[in-house]
Amino acid sequence: MKAMMGREDFEAGLRQIGAERYHHLHPFQQRLQNGDLSKTQVQAWALNRYYYQSQIPVKDAYILARLRTPELRREWRQRIIDHDGEEGQRGGIEKWIALTDGVGLDRAYVESGVGILAGTRFAVDAYVHFVQERTLLEAIASSLTELFSPTVIGTRVRGMLEHYDFISKETLAYFDKRPVQAKRDSDFALAYCLDNARRPEEQTAVLDALRFKCQVLWAQLDALHFAYVEPGMIPPDAWRTGEGLRDEGGAA
């Protein structure tokens, strides 16, 4: 990019990335919300997604440490509270564990990280490293996938409740507050990027950071799809049916 984009064109460019690259378009995501996965495949999704959820407050802590004003730190700190929780309030990680409980996975097994696909781990770790190593502007820009999540969450929840008899509203409690939280967080991150990308190369970096984050989310679903759907080649050390289930859960 050789010339600055206007604010409206810059925002439109960011939203276009979501329209073309966000993981709601992935075949595994489509199968999940359309009821086309088996219980085993939903369990694999819940287990692997836990690793991503567990690392969100880690990457947010790296960003928090780089913010230079109390106002910015207060704003970003709320993200960590949302996921880690606080006294008397369950956070997103605990709610995700409730989801894995709900689909019959053993809590200790989930939290151990045993059985996570290598592709999941590599993608999530790459995201954390990106936030550590790139500029603060790029790190914040990588969170902009939250621009696209509120509508997708509603579709996912409706589809799972409609199609899977082993899923309940309580199982999916993680998603209850996420649309509001994601809207709040993405409004802040979008304004920050629009205000602070002041040179053409900075606008390019913001766009590329969002593309990268979309790749992180897409790669996680690639790993699930090729291990558990087509062609169903589960790699060594990855979770298999019958492993890590609650004693009372039975086989998937």
TrEMBL record:
Pfam families recorded: TENA_THI-4 (PF03070)
Keywords carried by this UniProt record:
Oxidoreductase, PQQ biosynthesis
Domain Thiaminase-2/PQQC, residue spans? 14-222
Kindly state which reaction or reactions the protein catalyses.
Answer: 6-(2-amino-2-carboxyethyl)-7,8-dioxo-1,2,3,4,7,8-hexahydroquinoline-2,4-dicarboxylate + 3 O2 = pyrroloquinoline quinone + 2 H2O2 + 2 H2O + H(+)
Q: What class of enzyme is it?
A: oxidoreductase
Pathway it works in: Cofactor biosynthesis; pyrroloquinoline quinone biosynthesis
The answer, when asked if Oxidoreductase is one of the entry's keywords, is yes
Q: Name one GO biological process term.
A: pyrroloquinoline quinone biosynthetic process
- In short, the EC number is 1.3.3.11
GO MF entry, a single one? pyrroloquinoline-quinone synthase activity
Q: What does this protein do?
A: Ring cyclization and eight-electron oxidation of 3a-(2-amino-2-carboxyethyl)-4,5-dioxo-4,5,6,7,8,9-hexahydroquinoline-7,9-dicarboxylic-acid to PQQ.
- What family classification does the UniProt entry report for this protein? Belongs to the PqqC family.
- What is the name listed in the Swiss-Prot or TrEMBL entry for this protein? Pyrroloquinoline-quinone synthase
Q: Which organism is it from?
A: Aurantimonas marianensis
This protein's gene is called pqqC
